[in-house]
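Action item from last week, closing it out:
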Amino acid sequence: MDPKEQKHILIIGSGSVGKRHARNLGAFGCSISCVDPRKDRLDELASEIKVQGTFSTIEEALDKAENLHGVVVASPPRFHIDQSIASLEKGLPVFLEKPVSPHLNEALRLQECVNATGIPLLLGYTWRWWEPLRYVRRLLKSNEIGNLLHVQFVMSAHLEDWHPWEKIQDFFMSSLELGGGALLDESHWPDLMLWLFGMPVNVFARIDKISSLDIETDDNVDMVVCYSEGPTVSIHLDLYGRPHEKKIIFVGEKGTIRWTADPNQVAVGYGMEQQWKITNYDCERNDMFVAAAAEFLEILDGGSVRTCSIDDGVGIMKLIEAARKSSAEGCIVKLTGEG
């Protein structure tokens, strides 16, 4: 493919994240077409950016959209597998929103398709592109705080604040059928654990609906994860917390690294006093989506998937299935311990 050729990208799903990908890829000079069964969403996107074609079904889009170079799958998780496979079988590289799917067996089916076709798929666990977390990863690799003993992940954000323009009952996050819920949607944080430390040896989890939110999905997840040679990790995810909080605390034998989304900083402390070496950042949330889009465009020009692959997505689904089993049976579930 000629790197100078304008890329024509099909966006499947014109909800919030689909619009974001369309705007970002449009800003890179791509031509955008989009698919959504809701005409109001297609019209809204077309009012924001120039759209080459709009379609109500993926079949129509793949048949009628001209000179497509790649596909972004930004629909609810229930549809991810079939839509990704349809695109790959047309020879089109895919940028797939996380999670891969609601269930591991479906993720494995997509992995088989990627391997069989040889067509690349980039997975959108976008916090992997967040520069402060990349800095943390470098600190950990350089053994900045010594042997890690404990890591705490926290994501707490009230669901009604996410999309204030719509009722949460109209948001896929409230639907079991569509693949919503804290565990699946906020699998960003377990994914970051795998990105940093690899696959653990076991997990104990509780997955619940405990708040008064009018949803049918889980809104509270707590996990304790252990490594044979590595830290004990605790992960808390919820959809009811206010104020919102996103943080990761790494405790090592020589000190502590503290990452927070708000304030946007990485702090490193070495002594008993509250004295921190702080690195502040002015990057914005959209920057990680832009970085992911840039990698996708490099893939369309013949580059390889560097940051997040289908294999990474299958790994997080293995952890999710283990967490579900642990919660359902009230037991510790062993994993492969590959990392």
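Closing note: The chain is about 35% helix and 25% strand.
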